[in-house]
Amino acid sequence: MFVAAFMVPASAQDTLPPAPYAYKQLDDPAKEKSAQDLMMTLRCLTCQSQSIADSDAPMAGDMRHQVRQRIEAGEDPEAIRAWLIERYGDWVSYEPQVTAMTWPLFAAPIVLLLIAALLLRKRFGRARAAGDKS
Amino acid sequence: MIAEIALALLWLAAALAVLQLGLGSYALTARGAEFLRAIRPIAVVQGLLVATAFALLIVLFLRTDLSVKLVAANSHSLKPIIYKVAGAWGNHEGSMLLWVTVMGLAGSFVALLERRLNERTMVATLAGQAFVSLGFYAFMLFSSNPFERLNPAPVEGNGLNPLLQDPGLAFHPPTLYIGYVGLSIAFSFAIGALVTRDVGPAFARAMRPWVMGAWIFLTLGITAGSWWAYYELGWGGWWFWDPVENASLMPWLAATALLHSVSVLATRNALKAWTVMLAVVAFSMSMVGTFLVRSGILTSVHAFAVDPERGSFILALLAIYIGGALALFGLRASTVTEGARFHLFSREGALVMNNVLLVGVLGIVLMGTLYPLVTEAFGTKVSVGPPYFNPVSAIFVFPMLIIMAAGPLMRWRSDNGRKLTNLMAAPALAAAAALALVVVFAGDINLLPLLGLVFAAGLAIASVLPLWKRNLRRTPAHIYGMVIAHLGIAVALAGMASESAFNTEKLVASEFGQSHKVGPWNIELQGVKPVAGANWTALEARLVARYGDSNVQTVLAPQSRMFSSPPTATNEAALLTRWNGQLYVVLGEEGEDGRWQLRLWWKPFVPLIWYGGLMIGLGGILALVGRTSRDRRRKDQPEFEPLAEPAEPTPAGGREALA
Amino acid sequence: MKHWAIWLPLALFGVLFAVFASGLIAPGDRTIVSQMIGKPLPDFDLPQAVPDRPAVARADFADGKPKLLNVFASWCVPCVAEAPYLQQLADAGVPIYGVAIRDRSPDVQAFLARNGNPYARIGADDVSKIQFDLGSSGVPETFVIDGKGIIRYQHIGDIRPEHVPMILQKLKEAQ
C-alpha cells in the first residue's frame, strides 16, 4: 500500500545553502549523465529508502556534491562507488556487488531458468512421446 | 451505542464464520450431506453482517464520534467529508475490518451467484473462505478492535496526516486492497477443489471472474500508486523498486499468471495442478505483501501502520493458511488427474511458458526484496535496487514479450507454425523499423531502453493481430479485452523505455525574468509569491513555458508547501502534458543570492506508462464482462469445448478455437 | 504428476517463513555503522569554525595521544543534550576536536556560549565531506582516534552519562 510519507521533517535542519553541486549540473553533459547514473544507484544515508538522486535531504545533497565534484575531476564512477562502499559498506549502493554474501542473488535467475527448463522438459518430453504415438 | 452494535455484529459474523467452517466441513462428510444446503445462506448472512459493521464504522467517522478510540486517533471534526470516510480505512484496525468485509462480501456473492460448480466443491470453498476470514476476525476482535471506546472522550481528534489528504490517496489504498483480498476467493476455490478433488473447467469458470476482478483492481491500484509517487515525490521517478511497491507488484505478477492459466483450464481442461498452485501463490503474495507493509521488517518510504506485534500475528496466519494450503496441495496434487495434453508449440504451450516466466519475475522480485533481510541475519547490510531489478527481471520479461506476441496467434493443442510465421512478419518489421528509427534519431541510448522501444513496437502490432481478418462486430468482448490489455503492455513499455532513454533534466538557479531551455521548451521564471491553504502555506512560482518556436504561452505554478501539523515540507510539482510528453517543474529553495532553485524535466512520452496501465485495466474489464456474460449464456453447454482433431485443421477451425 | 516438484512450493514457503521469522525475532539495527574502524583517518584540512579555537586537520591527530573527534552542529538537537558529557570528558583531560557540520560561525559561537565549549580545536565543514571520509551518517557522532591517527571506535548518536566511562575506556585502549 502506498500510504506514505515522502516528507522532510522541517525541524532540526541547518540553514546553510546546499553544497554547490547539490542542485547544479556539471557543464559537460556526458559527465553529468554518468554522475546522474551513479547517483540513481547510491542510497541516501538519512532517508528511509531513496536514492540520493531522489532526495531533498541535506546529506543527500552533500553526497551529490561529492559525486559531481569527483566525476568532474575525472574520477571513474565505479571508483566513487568503491570509495563510498569502503566507508559505509555494501548498504550504500543499490547495485549489489558480487560477494560471498550476495552471489545467490545473481545465481537466482539461472537457477530459476534451470528449474523451469527441467519442469517443462518433464512435462513436454512426455507429452511429445504420447503425442507421437497417437 | 453504534459502536457497541457494530462490535456485536462483528462477533455475530465471526460466530457465523465458525458455523460456516464447522457445518460446512461436516456437510462434506458422508453423514452430513443434509447440511449442504445450509452453507450458502450462512455465507450470505455472514457477509451482510460484517459489511454492516463496516458501514457503521464509516458512520462513526462521519459523525466524528470521539468516544471511539479509532476515530479520536485518526479523525478531526473539521475534516472534509471525503477524508472522514477515507479515515475509516486509513489505519490498521479499520483496514483489517475492510479486509474481512471484502472477504465476507466476496463469499456472499459467490454463494448467491455461482450455480454451476459442484455443490460439494462450493461448500468446501465457502468453508475455506470462512476459515481464512476467521483468522482475521480473531486478529481484529482480540488485538485490533476498531470499536474500542475511549473514556473520557477527548475534545478533538488527532486529525489525519496532511499528506494523506489527497483525493488520490483516499481511494488508492482500498483499490489495491480489494485486489489483495479479492484473491482470497481464488485461494478458497483452490482449497475447495483440492478437498473434493474436483479440479476442472467448472471450477476454473467459477474462479475466473474473481481472479479477473481482483487483477483489475490490482492493475489500477498499482497504476494509480505509480502516478501518485511520480507527481508527489517531486523528482519525476515513477517506480523505485521499494519494498512496499514490490509488495503490490508480486500479487499482480502471480494473479497475471493465474488469470492466463485459469483460462486454459476453463477452455481446454489443462494445467490443473499448476492453476491450483498459482491460486495459492497469488493469495500468499497478498498476505506476504500485507506482512511486509505492516511488520516494518524492511525499510520503506511508504511505511504503513508498522508494528512488529501485528507482524507476528500476520506471520502466524500466513503459516496456517499458506503453509496448510501448500501441504494440502502436496498431498492432493498427485491425485489431480492430468489435464488434456498439448504440444509445447501451441497456444497452451505459449501460455505455460509465459506463466513460467511470470513466476520467474515474481521469484526475482521476491528474492531481491527479501535478500537484505537474509544478509542482515548474517550481519551484513546490503541494498538491492533498480540496478539489480531492472536487468535481472529483463532476462525474463523480454522473452515473455515475444511469447506474448506470438501466443494469441497460435492454435490450441498443436500449431504447425506456418501461419504464425506469416503473421509475425508484421511485428518483426515494426520492431526493425523502431530499431532503425531509434538508432538514427536517438543515437546512443542504453541497451534496456533500446530493447524496450523495439519490443514495444513489435508487441503493439502483434497484439492487434488476433483481430486480423475477423468479423469485428462478431468478435467477442473478451478478445477485445485481451487485445487492449496486451496493447496496454506495449504502450506502458514504450513509456517506461522513453522515460529512461530520452529524459532531459535541467537544474538551475534562476533570477526573475530569466529563461531556461529544457528539451524543446523555453521556460521563464516570472515570480514567486506566497499562498495559503487550509492547513498549509506555500511559495508558488509563476513560470511561463513555450514549446519550440510556438508563441503559445502556458503558465505553470509549482509550489513548495509547508504543513503546520505535523511540520512537513512537500513539493507540489507542476505538470504540463503534450501529446509527445510531459514537462515537469519543481520549485526549490531560494538561494542566498536571491536566485530560485528550479528543477525542470522534459519527459518524452512518459504519460504512456499510466495510459498503458489504464488500458491493461480496461482490457481486463472488457474480458471480465465478456467472459461472464458468455459463461452465463452457455450454462447448458458441455463443460469445455471439444476441439476438432487438430491433425491439419482449416485456418477457420483454428480461428474459432481462439474463443 | 507424482514427483518432487509438488513439494517445492511448500519448501520455498518454509524458507520464506524462516526469513520472516528471523526478521521479526531479531529486527535489524537501522543504524549505518562506519566501515572505517581500524583504518587510518583519511586526509583532510578544514578551515577554522570559530575565532577562539584553531582549525582541525589530519596532521593534528598524529602526535601520539588518543583523541576524540566529534561531529556536531548548532542546529542539531541531540548535540545540546550531549554537551555536558563532552565537557565531562574534556574535564577528564581528553582532547576533543570538533567539526561543525553545515554551520555558520556566529551560530556555532552562540551554541558554544550557551552549551559550553569542550573543544580544543574546531573545524568547519560546509559540505559534510568529513562525514563521508569517516563513514558517518549523521550528527552527532564521536570517533576515538588513536595516537597514530587510526580510527578506533565510533559512537553514533549523543553521548549520555552512561557512555562516559565506556568512552574513557576506549581511549585508554587506544593508548
Report a brief summary of the structure:
The complex is a heterotrimer of chains A (134), B (659) and C (175). Chain A is mostly helical and 134 residues long. Chain A has four helices and one strand.
Please, could you describe this protein's structure?
The complex is a heterotrimer of chains A (134), B (659) and C (175). Chain A is mainly alpha-helical and 134 residues long. Chain A folds into two domains: 20-97, Orthogonal Bundle (Helicase, Ruva Protein, domain 3), CATH 1.10.8; 98-134. Chain A has helices at 29-39, 58-72, 77-88, 103-133, and one strand spanning 8-9. The termini of chain A are far apart. In chain B, 61% of the residues lie in helices and 11% in strands. Chain B is built from 19 helices and ten strands. Chain B has helices at 2-27, 39-62, 69-74, 81-87, 92-113, 119-143, 167-195, 201-233, 243-268, 272-295, 308-332, 347-377, 386-406, 418-423, 425-442, 447-464, 477-502, 608-633, 651-657; strands spanning 504-510, 515-518, 521-532, 536-547, 553-556, 559-563, 568-572, 574-578, 581-590, 596-604. In chain B, strands 2, 3, 4, 5, 6 and 7 form a six-stranded antiparallel sheet that branches. In chain B, strands 1-10-9-8 form a four-stranded antiparallel sheet, covered by helices on one side. Residues 636-659 of chain B have low confidence and may be disordered. Chain C has a domain at 58-173: Glutaredoxin. Helix content of chain C is 35%, strand content 16%. Chain C contains five helices and five strands; from the N terminus they run αβαβαβαββα. Chain C has a five-stranded mixed sheet with strand order 3-2-1-4-5. In chain C, α3 (105-115) links the parallel β2 and β3. Chains in contact: A-B, A-C, B-C. Chains A and B meet through β1 and α4 of A and α7, α8, α9, α12 and α13 of B. β1 (8-9) of chain A pairs antiparallel with β7 of chain B, so a sheet runs across the interface.
